[in-house]
Amino acid sequence: MTRVVALAGGVGGAKLADGLQAHLGADLAVVVNTGDDCWRHGLLVMPDHDTVLYNLAGIEQVEWGWGIEGDTHATMAQLGVYGEETWFGLGDRDLALHIVRTARLRAGDRLTDACLGAQRSLGIAARILPMSDDPVATEVRTADGWLEFQEYFVHQRQAPDVLELRFAGIEAATPTTEVRAALSEADAIVIAPSNPLVSVAPILDVPGVRDALAAARDGGVPVAAVSPIIGGRALKGPADRMLAALGHESSAIGVARLYAGLVDTFVLDTEDADAAPAVEALGLRPVVTDTIMRDDAGRARLAGEVLAAVAAHVR
Amino acid sequence: MTRVVALAGGVGGAKLADGLQAHLGADLAVVVNTGDDCWRHGLLVMPDHDTVLYNLAGIEQVEWGWGIEGDTHATMAQLGVYGEETWFGLGDRDLALHIVRTARLRAGDRLTDACLGAQRSLGIAARILPMSDDPVATEVRTADGWLEFQEYFVHQRQAPDVLELRFAGIEAATPTTEVRAALSEADAIVIAPSNPLVSVAPILDVPGVRDALAAARDGGVPVAAVSPIIGGRALKGPADRMLAALGHESSAIGVARLYAGLVDTFVLDTEDADAAPAVEALGLRPVVTDTIMRDDAGRARLAGEVLAAVAAHVR
Lengths: 315, 315
Hints:
Chain A has 315 residues and is α/β, with parallel strands linked by helices.
């Protein structure tokens, strides 16, 4: 097995992608959610892409998992002086990426090319592929109405109850040539432990992506998913409350149900070992292991176990 | 006398404008050169406006005269990682202005409004008015051909001989409503000690500005200029070599000749006192004083002397 595609968004996904890169290098392609991309101060910010980017470059802010370790915030403070909203904090070194990527987009580059350029500059071996070059905007309905994702996620700190989700623009979005090629050439596909409703679902909902996964499975390509829910809770972010609020079960089995029919292998934490029979009953092969990635070694260990599990079933 | 308009560009002009503001507060309008504005990393940078801005806000980098005191350069260093040119250094706090102003322009704001907004945010009493909202690009011909002004000024450190100057776009540029109103309502007009060829000339060459100055003089409004050349040399920048290279005299009298017919009062340094009769012979009233502005007190002193000189002739 060589070529692996991971679908990812957020910190958990970035950690597993980093572990996979340690095993696969340039044979890894990470397809990232762009639904929570947003424009701040006239600059395009891509939280999921950049979280994966900084983790794969080994420069991520370790405590938060996103942003750049040791970054400063002088520009942001000064933006506040000019009356700009400052609740979406952007570090000085981080801003360079938003500036240069936005400049390249305005100069006519594709989003994917602007991202690949930054990845090369940071010396990343794997490729991180935006799910689409077309704009998709994840929106969250709360008691106050529809909110931009980052308004809900960062500004309101995920406090409001989520009543509904939508991905504006997704019907018109197409997967990029690079995403289609990566999926059709993959020897295995891994859905990372990211929020299934707002990180993974937008990727899957880009017209053509579910079909590409189904075609890969039909061709004998193993497809695995790693549960982002451990003991009923998300390690980070609102996935647990969001699942419950939207009528799912906030548990490994609740996630497994969302992926049934799409994946053949489901990796869940030892804490949820007793859910393995229920996973199996869904037609998925359960793999029970320690899914918490505490450090680089932990990332590589979990990635290695996921790869071993799918390798056992490779075409 | 209350309302004064200063024409300025560069560090010397910014210092005198700051001194004038100390006397006049909101009754000062500074019309600034936009010919050396440039786009860097997809952001509009306005060196002359911003030098005046930071000086009037009292936050200028004291040694250089431009940029913000104590600014850091984390974003710029990271832009270099992404392959961007870094010879045009922009500080982190400085970048906030370019980011927010560019965002407002892209949102449809006029350049003047975007600048006035930043001035209010920094608590500046005077108004700094771009000479035009239309793009004008100062270009310098050297042995290598035509260069963008900042390519010559910053990147090539003013080393090449200047063979010719042009202000691309100036025929189509119009002075803003604010500039026209300020000139027509002025009780006095002061040309600051800025480079006459690349800081003051673009302002004067915006169609309508020379006529507005002439109309003001015809209406009895005193117009003064302060020599940027002392003892044959510019305190800062290439004005002296540029004057000589383009067939002028690099001296106070050489500058006075450029302004003859346009101004009635010419302020020159005590070091050049012996040129006073020649200034008078040009039909200008010479005012001889210490024109070096070493500190805030020096700025206010020179500004006070200029104001006293023109007040003696106010309508």
